[in-house]
Amino acid sequence: MFRGFYTVASGMIAQQRKTEILSNNLSNANTPGFKADQTSMRAFPEMLLQRIDNQQLPIKTEGMVTSSKPLNVGLNTGVYLQEAAPSFLQGDLQQTDQNTDFAVVDHEGNGTSFFTVQHPEGEFRYTRNGNFTLDHQGNLVTSSGLYVMDTNGDKITLNNNDFDVLSDGTILQNNVEVASLRISYTENPLLLKKEGDGLYSTLENELPFTKDGYTISQGYIEGANVDEGRTMTDMLTAYRSFEANQKVLQAYDTSMDKAVNEIGRVN
């Protein structure tokens, strides 16, 4: 009985966490460069049921010994949400016609590329959100004020919004090259640590930058890769699973109430 309480409770907790992650995905459906989190659930290790038998010892005293035989039947003890990992599928391009908006488009089979920005602590961070602007000093910055880096690891400073960006990230102003976007690359983006505001960080070394395997589109931003219809469906499924577990929990609670207050009553 008590094992049933724990099993049902673990299912409710897992479905609640899944609903929270799906809600976050849906709320960021209009956030440029947002990568939706995907969840995976895993069952706790199963318990192998055994039958307990009493066997007579082959001695004159005819003693008894208890033994057990496996029934080859498993009993699951619950489920948990193992991890939530972002999906790095390319989002749709959205035209903005703003010179400071960029979208990085990965070539098929070439890993994932990121814009490189500078964290206030001086370390590099990586983002797919190319919704940039110029600050009052002419530096190219993100919407939260982080500096966009060039291939030398320096800030990109421009005179005004009148500039062009080539497909390889080279920035031209008055037909003169002034900087080149530092596009960092990784073959396995799942090794990155997801932070807030669409930023990612590495657990160890910085990502290398490259001039190949991608195309920069000026005047566009990459939209979120959230499938709103599927996300809503998954949220309803998770909610119904939570309700089903809740009803089972109520049934266990009713049975326990009868066992305590009725079955054990002394007349």
Automatic annotation (TrEMBL):
InterPro entries found in the cross-reference section: Flag_bb_rod_N, Flagellar_basal_body_rod_CS, Flagellar_FlgE/F/G, Flg_bb/hook_C_dom, FlgE/F/G-like, LlgE_F_G-like_D1
The protein's name: Flagellar hook-basal body protein
Organism the protein comes from: Bacillus spongiae
Domain Flagellar basal-body/hook protein C-terminal positions: 218-261
Signal peptide positions (record): none
Annotated localization: Bacterial flagellum basal body
Keyword Secreted: no
Lineage: Bacteria, Bacillati, Bacillota, Bacilli, Bacillales
Family the UniProt entry places it in: Belongs to the flagella basal body rod proteins family.
